[in-house]
Amino acid sequence: MATLQEVTEARTARVAVRRNRPRRPVMWWQPVVVLAILVGIWYAAAAYYDHVRNLAFLVPYPHLVLKAIVAPTLPDGSPSTFGNDLWAALGRTTVVSLTGLAFAIVIGVVWAMLMAQAKWLENSLYPYAVVLQCVPILALVPLIGALFGYEFTSRVIVTVMIALFPMVSNTLFGLQSADRAQRELFRLQRAGLGAELVKLRIPAALPSIFVGLRTSAGLSVIGAIVGDQFFQRGNPGLGVLIQVTASRLMGPELYATIIIASLYGVAVFLVFGLLGRLAVGRWHDFG
């Protein structure tokens, strides 16, 4: 059985190896090249739908989409209010997604901590996390709307349901991945379950928790947009704006809304990835 000194020395050696590991060069130009290729393909597809099929609204030119984001105008050249609608909808979607993500983090971590205390608790509770992940959200929309209304609360509930499972599964995996020798050492020292959880399991689970955070952060954006499309009362978000622009055949505005929603999802994912690197990057290879 490993002693406390041996465990400490092994951990120090691992940290030293990671610190001395050469940093990978940042190849920023590779995504730029891929983006240029994709934009070229987009222009070719837009030209095909414009000149061959006379359906320009289906695939608008990229510069028209950029103009719809930066300086939207009406067909007669007068200024359009689409820009204000877009940023207002983005703000409302942001509030819904971050609120749902906060609830998903709290519920998921507490749920996983409870299951990590005993195998019978995991066997009893984990199947319901799987069921929650697999249940069709569309089937629950009428029930959620009837119970909680069709505005902000229902949107948040849908967001929580979509973003919850990665937090539960990743946190549980991290809590169970604590070194077995260290766990036996804690029990040998007659440490309680609370002390073992706070001093051993949670620090060991941090990398997995942040992986779950990144995944749930991206899913929370999807949940907010999906919930907005399901529950169209109250203040509209990006989901409603996507449906409105699609129904009115506003091609550039539709693509602009989709791109802004995608960029917001990427931004949320990158923010939590940065937080993960700041929190555990010094002693764990957090990609």
Intertermini distance: 33 Å
Do you know the CATH architecture of the domain at 89-287? Orthogonal Bundle
What series of H and E elements makes up the topology? Answer: HHHHHHHHHHH
Choose one word for the global shape: elongated
Strand percentage: under 5%
Main sheet summary: none
Helix count, DSSP H or I runs of 4 or more residues: 11
Helical amount = over 70%
**What is the name of the CATH topology of the domain at 89-287?**
MetI-like fold
CATH superfamily heading of the domain at 89-287: MetI-like
Number of strands: 0
Uncertain segments are none
Descriptive tags:
287 residues, mainly alpha, MetI-like fold, 78% helix, 0% strand, elongated
Question: Could you characterize the architecture of this molecule?
Answer:
With 287 residues, this protein is an all-alpha fold. The chain has a domain at 89-287: MetI-like (MetI-like fold, Orthogonal Bundle). 78% of the residues lie in helices and 0% in strands. It is built from eleven helices and no strands. The chain has helices at residues 4-20, 29-52, 62-70, 82-115, 119-134, 137-148, 152-176, 180-188, 193-230, 238-247, 251-280. Helix 3 (62-70) packs across helix 11 (251-280), helix 4 (82-115) runs antiparallel to helix 5 and helix 6 packs across helix 7. The longest helix has 38 residues, at 193-230. It is elongated and about 75 Å long. The mean pLDDT is 81.
